[in-house]
Amino acid sequence: MTLSNPGWPVRLEHGSVSVRPFRRSDANRWSELRRANEAWLAPWEPGTGTTWHEAHSPAAFRAMLRGLKRSIKDGTSWPLAVCWEGTLVGGLTVGNIVRRAFGSAYAGYWIDRGHAGKNITATALALVVDHALTVGRLHRIEVNIRPENGPSNRVAEKLGLRREGLHKRYLYIDGDWRDHYGYAVTAEEIASERMIDRMERLRRAEAERPASSGPAA
Question: Domain residue spans in the chain?
């Protein structure tokens, strides 16, 4: 842990899900995943000014990692690998960290399509939010998601994140300025129940809910 970036470096796990800092040896696996998931990920991410294949080469990963090391040193980001049973399957970044009176950051995430639907992303996000709002000494985490991105919105719903509203024309993606739902959680909200525990509670409640039998006759 450093004074400029409290809470970093971090390694967290829950069941088969773990998060850890990216490392240079992830280059080939990251490139393989990102290139294979172009159709799954590209519609939701800002463009890079080059082709998806070029932007997600092993060399591009190493260049990205060098830039991320600078932001880590500045205390403005936590770039994390999301792993399933020890294997890299996605990424989660706590970025735009601002300290002092603001005490806030945003979280963004992606996962390999073949591993979607296993509760991996929700678990990783819950772990990181709990850490960021306690050991990381942040007060607020935001997550911004396009309304059309059903799987990502579902992650926020699984954690019971508060949806604060619609940010009109929030981010330039896929050729236009796109609206995003804004979700958030503060340190006060997890003081009585950790995010990971809230996720498990909500998941149990959903599993126990009787299946709908349709409209009454």
Answer: 12-205
Architecture (CATH level 2) of domain 12-205:
3-Layer(aba) Sandwich (3.40)
CA distances 55 to 62, 64, 163, 166, Å, are: 11, 10, 32, 30
The whole-model pTM stands at: 0.92
Longest dimension (CA), the chain: 64
The Cα–Cα gap between 53 and 34 comes to: 9
Alpha helix ranges (H) inside the chain:
27-36, 38-41, 52-55, 58-74, 120-132, 150-158, 195-208
Q: pLDDT tens-digit profile of 55-93?
A: 999 999 999 999 999 999 999 999 999 999 999 999 999
CA distance 77 to 128: 12
